[in-house]
Amino acid sequence: MTINRQDFDKCTASILKLLYEKFPNEVDVMIEDLTEDGELNDNYFATIRFLRRENLLYYQELDFSNFKRTVLTAKSLSILDTIPDDIDMTLAQQLINSNKIAIIVKNIIKLAA
After folding, report:
1. Angle in degrees, CA 36, 57, 19, rounded to 5
2. 113 inside domain
3. How far apart are CA 72 and CA 80, in angstroms?
4. Terminus of the chain with fewer CB atoms < 10 Å: N or C?
5. What is the CATH number of the domain that holds 91?
């Protein structure tokens, strides 16, 4: 797996986890609050924009490094509340409780298609 893909998985997991835990409230997502030492800033920007294009989240506007009023979409909630056949936990519970981020994110993206 490439470094960019690993970074994408990490970014996706942290964003979806944050929004799932705050749902249904809209949240201002500050990139600086998500990153460690600013090393993944570009990947977080790209990931959030990708997730919006795929209709997994919505944000009202981007103001510098703040995605304002961000919230999960119905599509995203449906996917995160899915329970895969092989595990007795929803994908959201797996995101919160598991360290197998790459597998979980692949399942989320697969279901989003």
Report:
1. 55
2. no
3. 10
4. C
5. 1.10.10
What pLDDT does 67 receive? 92
The whole-angstrom separation of Cα 13 and Cα 5 is 12
22-35 pLDDT, tens per residue? 999 999 998 888 77
Burial profile 3-38: b = 16 or more Cβ within 10 angstroms, e = fewer: eeeebbbbbbbbbbebbbeeeeebbebebeebbeee
pLDDT digits (tens, 9 = 90+) for 68-100: 999 999 999 999 999 887 788 898 998 888 777
What pTM does this model have? 0.84
Q: Coil, strand, or helix at residue 73? A: coil
Q: Which domain holds residue 25?
A: 3-106
Q: Please name the residues in contact with 79: beta carbons below 8 A apart, sequence gap of 6 or more.
A: 56, 91, 108, 111, 112
